[in-house]
Write a structure and sequence with these properties.
The chain has a 4-stranded antiparallel sheet with strand order 2-3-1-4. It has helices spanning 3-22, 28-38, 41-52, 58-65, 69-81, 116-125, 151-162, and strands at residues 101-109, 130-135, 142-148, 168-175. The two termini are 21 Å apart. 46% of the residues lie in helices and 16% in strands. Residues 28-34 have low confidence and may be disordered. The radius of gyration is 21 Å and the shape is elongated. It folds into 2 domains: 3-81, Winged helix-like DNA-binding domain superfamily/Winged helix DNA-binding domain (Arc Repressor Mutant, subunit A); 94-175, Alpha-Beta Plaits.
Length: 188
């Protein structure tokens, strides 16, 4: 299949994907199938290798895949343009930097306020020790992952910053004990 046809098919598939994302009537499974359909064998091999070793240089990755560096660069550009490959990141061990406490806060917001989510999330982003913010549908609206050097540091963050966040109706703290599995590797 020529690269022009692949680009056209990819553009059509992206348009369909955007339609389904905007119209929540489509199941997640169909969305996954569509994304996989957009990928060919080389794309999947590229992603598998990058998941295993994101620090691979383009020449090393091209050698492993048996393609030229320029062909690999075009494919990486295509994967980035399609929003499939968002970039590389450093994984930091917070404990090695002296942050021994991690707490997951489940927050229920006062949804009678029109801007409850927006105000809360904007304010939570301003707390440096909040390393993750997730939103949910259900009883819990937001989950914050908070790191601290020790329990005293956590209590200071909780009392002076977390409890000052707007529109909190209820909050539950879960102390992190162990991380059993933390992988983002997909079966491609």
């Amino acid at each position: 299949m020529s690269e022009a046809i692949i680009v056209v098919c990819g553009a059509i598939a992206r348009s369909i994907l955007v339609f389904f994302q905007e119209n929540l009537h489509c199941s997640f499974v169909i969305l996954q199938i569509m994304v996989v359909f957009m990928l060919d064998d080389l794309d999947r091999r590229i992603l598998r290798h990058l998941q295993q070793d994101p620090a691979l240089s383009i020449p090393d990755l091209a050698d492993r895949l048996g393609v030229t560096g320029s062909r690999l660069s075009r494919r990486l550009d295509k994967l980035q343009a399609n929003g499939i490959l968002r970039g590389q990141r450093a994984v930091i061990d917070w404990r090695a930097l002296g942050y021994a406490v991690e707490v997951s806060l489940r927050v229920t917001l006062d949804k009678t306020q029109n801007r409850a989510f927006d105000d809360f999330i904007e304010a939570a982003r301003g707390i440096p020790e909040v390393i993750e913010i997730q939103t949910f549908l259900g009883r819990v609206d937001v989950r914050l992952s908070v790191i601290a050097r020790d329990m005293q540091h956590y209590q200071n963050i909780y009392r002076s910053q977390v409890l000052a966040l707007p529109h909190i109706s209820d909050i539950e703290a879960l102390m992190h004990v162990a991380r059993i599995k933390s992988e983002e590797i997909l079966p491609l």
